[in-house]
Amino acid sequence: MNFNDSLRSFKEFWNEFRKEKTGLVGLGILAVFVILGLVGPFIVPFHGAEAHWRDIDYWQDNPQAAPPVWTNAFAAKKGVPSSSLSAFKVEAETQDSGAVIKTFTFDYRFSYDQPPRDLIVRVPGSGQIPLVISLERPDGLAAEIYRDQVELSDSSPERVSVARNCGQAAVEFVRAQDADLANSMSADLVKPTSIFFSKLGPETLDNPAMLKGDYKIKVKALLLSSDFSVGSPSILVSGHVSGLMGTDASKRDVFTGIILGIRWALIIGILTSVISVVAGVLLGIIAAYFGGWVDWLLTRLYELIYLLPVLPFLIVISAIFKPSIWNMIILICAFFWTGSFKTVYSMTLQIKEETYIEAARALGSSKWRIVFKHISPILLPYSFASMALSIPAIIVYEASVSLLGLGDSTIVSWGQILESALSQGAMINNLWWWVIPPGLMIALMGMSFAFLGTALDKILHPKLKTR
Amino acid sequence: MSAANASVVALDTILEIDGLCKEFVSHRNHARVRAVDGVSFSVRRGEILGLVGESGCGKTTTGKLIMRLIEPSSGTIRVEGKDAVNLDREADFAYRRRVQMIFQDPYASMNPHFRIRDVLEEPLLIHGIGASREERMKLVEEVMEKVKMTPASDFLDRYPHMLSGGQRQRIAIARTLILRPSIIVADEPVSMIDLSTRAEILHLMKTIQADMDLSFVYITHDISTARYFTDRIAVMYLGKIVEIGSQDEVIDHPAHPYTKALIEAVCEPESGRVGIMRELKVKGEIPSAADIPSGCRFHPRCMFATDDCAKDPEPELQEIIAGHLQACKRYNG
Amino acid sequence: MSDTTGKAEPVLRVQDLKLHYFTSRGPVRALDGISFDLARGETLGLVGESGCGKTTTGVALLNMPSPPGRIVGGSVVIDGTQIVGLPDRELRRNVRWSKISMVFQGAMNCLTPVYTIRELMVETYRVHCGPEALDAARHVNMAKLEALMAKYVRLVGMNESVLGRYPHELSGGMKQRVVIAMALFLEPKVIVMDEPTTALDVIVQAQILNLIKQLKRDLGLSYIFITHDLSTEAEIADRIMVMYAGRMAELGSSEDIFGGPSNSKGGPLHPYTQMLLASTPRLHRRRVSELAFIPGSPPDLIAPPEGCRFSPRCPFAKNKCRQLDPPVHEFGKGHLVACWKAMEESEYERS
Predict the structure, then answer these.
(1) Class of domain B3-326 (CATH, top level)
(2) For residue C244, is pLDDT > 60?
(3) Contact yes or no for B126 and A364 at CB 8 A
(4) Contact flag B69-A362 (C-beta cutoff 8 Å)
(5) A107-135: per-residue pLDDT in tens?
(6) A366 with B126: Cβ contact below 8 A
(7) Under CATH, which number does the domain A77-238 receive?
(8) Using CA atoms, how far apart are residues B43 and B216, in angstroms rounded to an integer?
C-alpha cells in the first residue's frame, strides 16, 4: 500500500472512529496524559524534582503531610497555604562610608486562622555580610526577626528558618511590649511564627488569635565593599496546606510526583504491554499455525513460564542484578507474553481451518505470508484490547515490585508513590490526598486504554456493524 | 494402468489420476476412513469432467488431492505428463500456478479483511508477477473484465461482504484466472448461490473455459447442473468411481444402479408430479466411510443385489461402449 | 371459535399481511401486503429468491419473527382464530403447535445434542401444553404422550427405538424425519416447512419428499412448503405462490405455473416466474445449451423501487411499470398475477 492508500485508509478509519463516543473519551483522556507527560516536568512547581525525589534536603522547606490548598475552602480554621513570596521592592542606600545598604521589602497578606509553620528566607550572594530581617505588622509593631553576620555564597544560599533560628528574637519582641509575658516564655519552647503573627496579649502563649492583615518583611544587607554582593532573596512561607495535591510524609509535593509519574506510567505501561502482547500474539500464531515441533517447543515454554511464580523470581533477579526500570520492563514482558499466547493460540487453531486460508495455500502462499497477511490482521482487535487491558495490571505490578524495595530508585512512578503512602502510614493518618491521586491516575489511565480498545475493536472488525 | 485410463489416454491429456487413495485416521477412535479408495480418470485439454456424488463419496477429497492441499496415501497424479505427488518446494510453487481452485462458499474463500483489490493482487504478489503496482493493477482489471465485473473501479475498494454471492463467486473465478492456469478444480461453485444467478455463473465459467481452453474438474452433488456444464461425468460412491462416460451417456443411459437411483431422485420443474411417489430402487442411507461394506460397496442399498455381490471381490469398471464404463456385475445391457 | 362447515372454509386465510424489520438503518419492508388462502388438505408452495420474504411469511404465520421484526398490518386467521394481535402466551398455548407448527430451515442441525429425542419431544409438549398438563396425574399423561410420540415416529418411517437416541447418533435423513415428527405429533392443522430437503443428499431428499407426500395422503393435513427451488415445489405443491421483494408476483395451481403436460395449456404469466422457470436446470429435456439467468439482484427492502418491484430487472418493463404498482388480477380460476404486461395481453386477447 502506497502513501495515498495509507492516508486514505487512515482517514476512513478516523471517520469511523469519530462515531464511537467511548473511543473519543478514551483518546481524549490519553491525549491529556500525553500532553501533561511531555510538558509536565516544565510546569510543575518544583523543577528538578525528579532528580531529587529522594533527597531530603531538597524538600526541607515543604510542610510535612500537608493537605492540598483547596481544602481551605472546607476548613473551619483556615490553614496557611505554603507559598513563596516573590514580589519585592529593592532599595539601595549608599552610606557615607561607601557601604551600601540593600533593602528588600516583601509584601505578605495574612488572612488565616493559624500561624505559618515556618518562614524560610534564603539569601544568595558573596562575601561577609551582616543581615537583618525584620517584620512590620499590620498593628504597627515591628519586630526584628534575625540579626547576624554571615558568609554568603551563591551556590548555597544562607537559609534562615524563622521557626528554628528566631526563638530568642521572638521573646525579645514580646519583651518590648510586655515584659512580664516575656518572662514566662522560654526561647527554646516558643513558636516564633505563632508569636509574630498573632495579636499580643495574655493568650498569646496558649490560645493566640491571629493578627490578620498586610505584613512587610524586610531583608537588609550591608555591603561593606564592592566585592561583596547580595542576590535576590527568596522567602518561603511554609504552611499547613500546600500545593494542588498536598505533601506526603517526606514533605514531597504530591502533585509534582503525579505529573512526573505520568511519563513513567505511559512508558512502563505502553512499552511493556505492547512488547508482551506483540510477542504473545506472534508466538501464539506461529505455534498454532506451524504446528509440529515449533508448537511443541513454544507450548512447553509457555507452560514453564506460566507456572513460574513471578514474584520470587523477580526478587531473586533483582537482588542479584539490581535492575533498572528498563530491565524491569524486559523482565515483566518475559512473564506477561503468556497472557495473550493461549487465547491467540486457540483463535488461530480455528482461523487456520477457514476456507480463505486454504485458498491462500492453494495459491502458493508461504506460511509466513499467511501468518502476517491473513491471520495477524484478524487478531489486531484482540491485540489492542489485550494491550489496553493489561496496562493497569502492569502498572500495579511495578508498584508491587517497588513495594518490596526492588523498584528503580532513580525514577518516580505512581506505584512508588502508592507504595510509600502505604508504608509510611498514609491510611492510618488519614492522608487521603496522598493515596487517592495515584490510585485515581492508575484507574484513569487503565480506563482510557480500555475505552480505546473497545472502540478499536468495533472498527477494526468490518463485519461487526450493527444491523 | 486401469481400464478407465487405457481407452482415453490421448496426447493432449492434461490430468491423469491412477489408483488414487486417501486414508484418514480419526484421532478419537483410531478409525481408518478411506475417503478416496482407488480412483482413476483422466482429463484432456479443454475438457470438463464432472465428479458427481453425494456426501462422503470422496469428490471433495479428490479435488483437494489434485490441488495438493492434502497428500495421497497411494496412487499417482500426473499433470501435463509430470508427476504431481512428489514435488520439491520449487516444483510445488510452480505447480500452484498451473492448477487453481474455485471454492464452494464464495464468502468464506476470501479474507473478510481484504478489499477486492487485495484479494486479486495476492496471487500476483505471491508469484512475483508484475514489477510495479500499475502493472499488477492492469492485470487485475483485465481479469475483472473477463468475469464481467466492470467498471472495475466500482468494485476494487469494496470488502467481500459488500458484494452479493454471485459477485463474490465471480471475483473468486477472477482470482483463479489471474495466474493463467491450465486446470481449474471447481468445488460446488454454484451450490451456495441463488438459483436465478447460478446459470449466470455457469455460463460465465463456460465462456471462459472455451476462451482460454481451460480444463475443469467440476465437483457437484447436483447432476442437473452437470448436464449444462460438463463434457464427461464420473459418478462417485463411497470413495470409488462407479460409472464414467460422456454426460449424454451417463444421464440418458445410466448403467450402474446407484447412477440410476441418483437420476431417478432428481426433481424436474413440471406439473403432474404431485402425488406421484418416486420409485427409488435404493434403500437406507450412505454408510460411514470408516466401515465400507464388503464386495461391491453399494450392495447393502442396492435393490438388484444378490448374495454374490457381498462375497465376490469388488467389481472393476467395465466398458459398455467406447468411453462409457461402469462397475456393476449384474449389468447386462 | 373453530369453523366446522367443512372443506369450503379455508383452514388458513391471510389478508394483506405486512411485516417489517425495524433496523438501525430504517424499517425493512420484508412483507408488504401478502394475501392467500389455504384449503384443508392442500399444499401451498412459497417460492422465490433469497430475500423475497418466503421464510418471513412462514414465521409470520406463527407470529414469531426474529427481532427486530414485527407484524405491522393485515390479518392471519388459522382455523378460525385471528393470530395478529394475540399475546405471546396465548399463541404459545393455543396456537403454536396445536393449530400450526413449523419445520424451520436447518432445524435438523438445531437439535440440542445433550438431550435424547424423547426428552426433546417431551419438552416441546411441555412448552406448548403447559407443564401442568404433564404433572397432573403424571403417569397417565406420560403414557399417553409416549404412545403419541411412538405413533408419529413410526409414521415418519422410523423405529421407536430412535426415541432413546441422541441427535449425533442419527444420520441427516433420520434427523429430518425426527424434526418432522416433532412438528406433527401435537396434531396441528397446518404445517409450515422451510427448505426441509435442501441440506440433504439427493437420494435422501427424494426419500423425504416421498415421506411428505405419504403423510399428505394419509393424514390429510395442510402444508405450506417453502423453498427456493421450483423443481422441489413441482413435486409437492398443489398450488404455488411466487414471491418477489416482499410481494406476491404470481399464485396459481401447479399446472398454471409449470404449464400442463406437453406444454399444451397454462404456463406462467408473470415475467419473473417465466425467468425463474427458465433458469431452473432440467435433467431430461432435450438439451438446452443455454440456461437462462436473471440479471441484477433483488431490491433493497428499506427503500423498494417505485411501481412494480420487479421493473428494474424485467426485460419487458415499460414506464407504467416503473411508476404504478400493478394490482393483483385473477386470470382463470384461482390464477392470480400482479403484472401490467399480463393484464394488457389478456385484454388484447379478449378483444
Answers:
(1) alpha beta
(2) yes
(3) yes
(4) yes
(5) 888 888 888 888 888 888 888 888 888 88
(6) yes
(7) 2.60.120
(8) 8
